[in-house]
Structure formats: structure tokens, C-alpha cells
Fold this sequence. Notes:
The mean pLDDT is 87. It contains no helices and 9 strands. Helix content is 0%, strand content 35%. It has strands at residues 3-6, 13-16, 23-29, 33-37, 46-48, 57-60, 63-68, 77-78, 83-84.
Amino acid sequence: MPRGYQIHPEDNVVVLLQDTAPEVVDVVGAALFPFAVTQSIPMGHKVAIVDLAEGAHIVKFGVTIGIASAPIKAGEWVHLHNCRSQLDERSSTLDVHTGATGDTVYE
């Protein structure tokens, strides 16, 4: 069974320790529980463990690391396509796979 890690008990995301398909993940760390991932998510990425409304705080390490830019259901990937920085408005334009800016034209 793949594993995920909850760093802090107040975190609403866990970090996947392996590439994960839609399947049950064994969460370890601050809490121990099985959890269903609903889509394929790469190792090292975050998955929501509760439903998050648009505008909700994404909490990792016990602190807010971003804001949900769209509703995120429990079990879904939390990344650039649905999470934005509260410090940098450009974060919502970053490419989901490369992190490259989408609002800058290079000539």
C-alpha cells in the first residue's frame, strides 16, 4: 500500500511518499489512517485530506502555505492548478508541471 505523510496534526494535506494511482494510501506521521486518493498523483506532491472550498487555506507544516483557487475535494491533488500563493498574484499563472510562468513573454 502506498504511503503518505502528515507533517503536522493541523495539516489538511498529506505528502505522498510514492507515485500514487487512485487507491488507498496509508497515512503516517502526525496521525495514522488509511485515506483514498482519487487521481494519479506524483511522489512528493500534496493531496487534500478534507474538502477545501475556493479561498480555503492550504495548511502544511501547521501553517498556511497557499489558498485554494478552486474547490478541492478530499483525495485530489493540491498543486499549482488549484492552489495560489497569498504572497504572489502571479502564482496562479504557473504551469502545473514545469512551474514556468504563463504571463511572461520571452522573445
